[in-house]
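Z., the sequence and structure:
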Amino acid sequence: MRLGQKADDQMGEAGEQVHFYGPTSAFAHSSRDPPMSTSPAEQKNSEFTNRPHDYRRYLPNDVDLSHTQHTVVLDRFFRFFASWGMRASPDLFQQDMVRTVMLPPHIPLARFAHYSPFLHNIMLAIALMWSDEEHLQQASTRAIFASKAETYLSVEISRPTLATVQGLALKSSYHSTLGDHAGGWSYFGLADRAALSRRSCLPVETLLTVQSA
């Protein structure tokens, strides 16, 4: 019996039909792809997120990042980095990003749970490590996106959304990738504090439910 077949048999003892593992799983080589959903709602959402949009609206102007490069590095970011701890959802991020950048420029920046300019830029500051282009991988290029993220953080931190909390946690990781562990822990503490700030805005009934769980 092949190793892949054996792994499939072991994972199928409960009778489940879907055996799918992420690219970093030890069983990725033996998994079967999940069935494609035919849900009308998911199909409609896919059509929406694939509409042409100005993905560069809140990104720095001094870095030439094509749509293909942008798509590739974010895909690798979600596959190989964000999957640990599930600090951001690729589908929800993409959905809210399209919603944000398709609004007319003169309208004040909308607040969405899974996208903010701060989150977008700090994601790219990490994601560019997986770029195929050497000049985009460089720490100096990534620092441009991190600096751009900082300009939005000063606005978002006063009324943090879930995207702000996610961005602060990722900024913690960004500093750690540069060997700045003190800075990393500092931003992790800010992420924790921003999460508590959001928690204090929840209804009392919700807080009691969370505490009892």
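The chain has two domains: 1-32, 62-202. Confidence is low (pLDDT under 50) at residues 1-13, 39-44, 200-208.

Let me know what you think.
H.
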